[in-house]
Amino acid sequence: MSTPNKDLEKVEVRVKWDPSPHGEPANDLDIIAATYPAGEPYGSPAYLVHFDSRAPDGTITLNRDSRTGQGLGYDEVMTLELGRVSEAYSRVVVGVAIQQRDGHKTFGAIENTGVQIREGYTILSEDDFSGVGTATAAVVAEFVRDSSGIWRFHDSVRGFDGDADAFAAAMGSRSFGE
């Protein structure tokens, strides 16, 4: 089917942050993507993609994973090939969670945080997490396939306070985001 609307094909979600000060526990931020079935776009995710995993069909992959924030530029990068995602799925929610293994840490406690979402050279969204400084995790993007099969991007950074497991379970629910 031909349409004049431009569809999102391949999107990158990139996160950066500074390492923790010497002698303190490492700052570890993780990108998490949750894919939802077309029949239940606000139910439980069909699958999650995060460190040590990828989409079963290879359409969502974590290309770069950092446990410390050391390095130049973006420390963690996830690619979503939306153009290849099965029609069985109609929604993908992407979030960023701070690992809490060494105590409670929020975005406001980590220097120079940032997230960028882009397709090719086009920047769809950028944020520095300052609006969710007291949160331990945040939804940073939502991609929804409309009835014509076109993927739409919803730009919104919404904070969450809790561990990564609780965040992954709640990040795509109506009560959390809607």
Which residue ranges are poorly predicted, with pLDDT under 50 across at least 5 consecutive positions? 1-5
Quaternary form: single chain
Average pLDDT score? 89
Radius of gyration: 16 Å
Shape: globular
Helical residues, percent: under 10%
Distance between the termini: 31 Å
What is the ordering of alpha helices and beta strands? Answer: EEEEEEEEEEEHH
Largest sheet: 6 strands, antiparallel
- Which structural class should the secondary elements be placed in? mainly beta
Question: What does the secondary structure layout of this molecule look like, with pairings?
Answer:
Blueprint: E1 10-16, E2 29-37, E3 47-49, E4 60-64, E5 76-81, E6 89-98, E7 114-119, E8 122-127, E9 137-145, E10 151-154, E11 158-160, H1 164-170, H2 174-177
